[in-house]
Amino acid sequence: MSENNTEHIPTVYDVAKEAGVSRATVDRVIFNRGGVSRQTEEKVNDVIRRLGYSPNPNASMLASRKQLTIACLIPRFEQGDYWSVACNGFTDGAKAIKTCVVRTDIHLFDPDDISSFKEECSKILASKPSGVITNVVFAEEVEQFARQLDGAGIPYAFVDQKIRGLNYSLYFGADPYEAGYLGAYLLTHRMEVKDIAIVRLIRDSDHKADPNKVRRQGVSDYITRNCPGCRMHTIFIPPHNPGMTHKILDTFFKEHQEIRHIIMANSRVHLIADYLRSNPCADRHVVGFDNLDKNIAALNEGLVEYLVTRNIPLQSFYTISQLASAIINGKNPLERDNLMHMDILHRLNSGHYAEQIYKQSAPEKNF
Question: What is the pTM of this model?
Answer without folding.
Answer: 0.79
